[in-house]
């Protein structure tokens, strides 16, 4: 019996997998089980040191050039076989696009209960997870009635906790040939040099209040000053002002940054569903009655085209 955490990689190990490992460590301790990890990728070699002090007993490494990019046909059988072999009672991954698909497929295959996009996971005699529902208005306490249970954790809700610098044991696994229906040859980032929205520590979002696509540079300048990712409301996306990959909300991406700056966003429930777990929310809106002011920690009533450049300038001065 053990707890199994999935380490995500895109060449390098992703922070979201290391956060999941820290949460999984607490579950393993409470359950009195060892913590094991699964790596699927080209080679763990350089990544091993990123696992120092996370409390992982054994990392099972499935290394193969064809595992460099995610493939459902490849990854799901490897995860299911390992989970069954080591008697995993809890399988914990990240609620990234990759993690959600992988865990859903694996849970279906091994007939396990699944909680996606949880904001916490714990062991309390059985596996439990907290999960926002109804566009984030309610936090449900999911109790697993059978094990193994599979949980994906929202990136950025947890922290990477290290104690010491002990490295896990590495157990290399065979990667048998598999018939795959689609092979990813190359991944081309659509915007080079920018921070991935769902993993960003700071997000600056523009809504319909930016007035038009010609004003994105004003927000992008603040993003550059802060090292932030650029988000958008659906109104801005639907107007054709920006690609849908920037959309935050119920039908967009769910983000959980340390700092979320909403510029010209009214605060519709569907938008809040994608950002309400952000740690600090700043709203800039020229309407003092805008609903976003009910949720934010800091509110600025004013024209964003005046406030945002001042904000960026002050940040640069401070640095
Ligand atoms: C099924 C469904 C799913 C949806 N999914 C999403 C989703 O994923 N994400 C999402 O965002 N929405 C989603 N929506 C749409 C949502 O209901 C809102 O329509 C949308 O969020 C509004 O976007 P907005 O805040 O940018 O625009 P508005 O509601 O029009 O607000 C614009 C704000 O900008 C302010 N403003 C105007 N000019 C300035 C200025 N110069 N300076 C400062 N402030 C200014 C205004 O006071 C206003 O508050 C969904 C809706 C449905 C029905």
- Note poorly predicted spans: none
List the strand order in the largest sheet.
7-11-6-1-4-5-12
* Count of beta strands: 17
Largest sheet: 7 strands, parallel
Q: What pattern of helices and strands is seen along the backbone?
A: EEEHEEHEHEEEEEEEHEHEHEHEH
Number of helices: 8
Bound molecules: flavin-adenine dinucleotide
Mean pLDDT: 95
Integer count of domains: 2
CATH superfamily of the largest domain: HUPs
Describe what this molecule looks like in 3D:
It is a single chain. With 319 residues, this protein is of the alpha/beta class. It has two domains: 2-172, HUPs (Rossmann fold), CATH 3.40.50; 197-318, TPP-binding domain (Rossmann fold, 3-Layer(aba) Sandwich). It is 26% helix and 27% strand. It is built from eight helices and 17 strands. It has helices spanning 15-31, 72-85, 97-109, 216-226, 234-238, 269-272, 292-295, 304-318, and strands spanning 2-7, 9-10, 12-13, 35-41, 58-63, 88-94, 113-118, 120-123, 127-133, 138-143, 149-153, 169-172, 202-206, 229-232, 259-263, 280-285, 298-301. A seven-stranded parallel sheet has the order 7-11-6-1-4-5-12, sandwiched between helices. Strands 14-13-15-16-17 form a five-stranded parallel sheet. The chain has a three-stranded antiparallel sheet with strand order 8-9-10. A hairpin with a 4-residue loop joins strand 9 (127-133) and strand 10. The longest helix has 17 residues, at 15-31. Bound molecules: flavin-adenine dinucleotide. Flavin-adenine dinucleotide (FAD) is lined by residues 207-209, 233-236, 247-252, 264-266, 268, 270-271, 274, 284-287, 290, 303-305.
